[in-house]
Specification:
By secondary structure, the chain is mostly beta strands. It contains four helices and 25 strands. The protein folds into two domains: 201 residues, Jelly Rolls, CATH 2.60.120; 126 residues, Jelly Rolls. It starts with a strand and ends in a 6-residue tail after the last strand.
Length: 338
């Protein structure tokens, strides 16, 4: 299990993951590939956990004023804000629409939409990301991104590999260079104004717990509240339709543990990844246990009997990603871990 835990302090960033890595205003961003290959264009990007999950987990950390250039994806892209204040912009130049997200908010941006984002807070910002599928494909960049990259010695190949000519790397003769996105390709992408983009946001301040949640009803010693964020209605788990209810290939829930609260011992039949938002949680399996703190990421094996508890005196909150559009309910264990 320790090998399936990535602590926040152990995250290995890549500062040269994408073609815009030297563009002024974007040069200070840090990208993290936590679970799965992600979409980085630099082969030096560190992958913390390579095991396929059916989705990818990554993260971005940026100082104030740092921008991620306009781009599009081939699969679902979801962000939940761990810290900071973030502005998301749509359109080729970010002119179509925008929304601002605060800590605890979630946004799911549809495929084939140019999007970018900026940390507009006063301090460093960090957000987790989920991408759909084991292979989320490659990024489609707005045309201006290619122009800016050439000025700073970066060339993207059709294979998705990034060549750094300023560092002495040569563009290979046998690999074609990725052509800049054309006006015709841009015209085929979906455009979202601010109102449409707001409909892709689940606000933490508007979150409603699932009154019939099986997990909440089974909590021991104190209360656990379950908040659907992404996913369809799931009667077997007692969870209503989430604010972002269209199919992603995974579901996202928020679980809030009061001090002393514990789940019963249970297992799952799908992949489950926990990202700790605030407070501390402890996971037990067999005779073992691990403590988890803010920013930590844990992926739990399918079928493993586990129990989560809040051992502290303050509330604890986690965002939990589960594989599939309709996860099965927890499989309760007759054993007792305490």
């Amino acid at each position: 299990m320790r090998a399936r835990l990535v602590r926040y302090g152990e995250l290995v960033p890549c500062r040269t993951a994408f073609i815009d890595t030297r563009t002024p205003g974007s040069e200070s961003k840090e990208n993290f590939t936590i679970i799965g290959p992600g979409v980085a264009e630099n082969p030096d990007q560190h992958v913390h956990i390579r095991e396929p999950h059916g989705f990818n987990i990554g993260a971005a950390r940026q100082p104030p004023g740092c921008v991620n250039s306009q781009h599009s994806h081939e699969t679902a892209e979801v962000f939940w804000i761990h810290s900071g204040r973030w502005r998301f912009m749509t359109g080729e130049h970010g002119e179509d629409g925008e929304v601002v997200l605060e800590r605890g908010d979630t946004i799911s941006i549809p495929i084939h939409v140019f999007r970018g984002f900026e940390n507009i807070g006063s301090g460093e910002g960090f957000m987790f990301a989920a991408l759909g599928g084991d292979d989320p494909g490659r990024v489609t960049w707005a045309p201006y991104v290619f122009d800016d990259a050439r000025k700073y010695g970066l060339v993207l190949l059709e294979s998705g590999r990034l060549i750094d000519t300023d560092a002495g790397e040569a563009v290979p003769d046998d690999e074609p260079v990725m052509p800049a996105t054309t006006a015709e390709q841009v015209a085929k992408l979906t455009r979202l104004d601010s109102a449409a983009l707001e409909s892709c946001v689940a606000r933490h301040s508007d979150a409603k717990s699932a009154a019939g949640s099986v997990m909440s009803a089974s909590a021991e010693h104190s209360h656990i509240r379950e908040f659907p964020v992404i996913g369809e209605r799931n009667d077997s788990e007692g969870v209503p339709k989430a604010p972002l209810s269209w199919r992603h290939g995974f579901q996202l829930r928020q679980l809030a543990f009061e001090p002393g609260a514990s789940t019963p011992v249970h297992s799952r039949v799908e992949e489950e990844v926990w990202t700790i938002h605030e407070g501390r949680l402890r996971v037990h399996w067999g005779e073992h246990a691990l403590d988890l703190g803010p920013g930590d990421v844990l992926t739990v094996p399918i079928g493993l009997s586990r129990r989560f508890e809040n051992p502290g005196s303050e509330p604890a909150v986690a965002f939990v990603v589960r594989g599939g559009n309709a996860p099965f309910p927890p499989q309760w264990s007759p054993s007792n871990m305490g």
